[in-house]
Amino acid sequence: xxxxxxxxxxxxxxxxxxxxxxxxxxxxxxxxxxxxxxxxxxxxxxxxxxxxxxxxxxxxxxxxxxxxxxxxxxxxxxxxxxxxxxxxxxxxxxxxxxxxxxxxxxxxxxxxxxxxxxxxxxxxxxxxxxxxxxxxxxxxxxxxxxxxxxxxxxxxxxxxxxxxxxxxxxxxxxxxxxxxxxxxxxxxxxxxxxxxxxxxxxxxxxxxxxxxxxxxxxxxxxxxxxxxxxxxxxxxxxxxxxxxxxxxxxxxxxxxxxxxxxxxxxxxxxxxxxxxx
Length: 277
Fold this sequence. Notes:
12 helices, single chain, 277 residues, globular, 70% helix, mainly alpha
């Protein structure tokens, strides 16, 4: 049984779990717009998420401490390399216009980790987008929205309708809410210069903002042309479960509360949809 915990920690630390969340949200979009299962895009999103997240998390460590990397990090580096090879393979199967959107998202991810932009723009000497005060949550929500909503629509030649725009807004809000438990968890550890939402308005008000965002997320569904009782029921269940995880998040939450359970919510959402299909 001793091997279970290291394997589970590798599963989380190597970004496989967060990649499943991105995969699930992309599949949810595909189902919502009655698109055939797009294997190449879904697998691309999965492997691109692993590659992108591991690049952001470990770029600084690999750059400055290459010789002293632990065996665990070296294994994650090797795993990330194979994930990169897989994303290249599946990316080659996508449409050119999809790749153009991906190139923009890739550039944002690169600038998020690598210090290339002029120092005067930043409040932190790291000089990457991650260091810009107050930008992190919005930037990540933007990238996830384009990845999980726009990419499947573009790759399958689906016209961007009012429903698609509403779905983009919903996905942006939902991603922001999912990040709030992480920001609450890191309240005592994040640099004050990052100006996270809990740092600026406090944990209680952060939860209130999150609840309001979830209400908007849910009621936006009523403005869609393609609306059904089943979709409303699913949205209600997902909104309620997410609200519970937001309300019960704290600075002293367990190690796996956000890293596993909160990031499992998109998978739970997808599972509910597949069960009711």
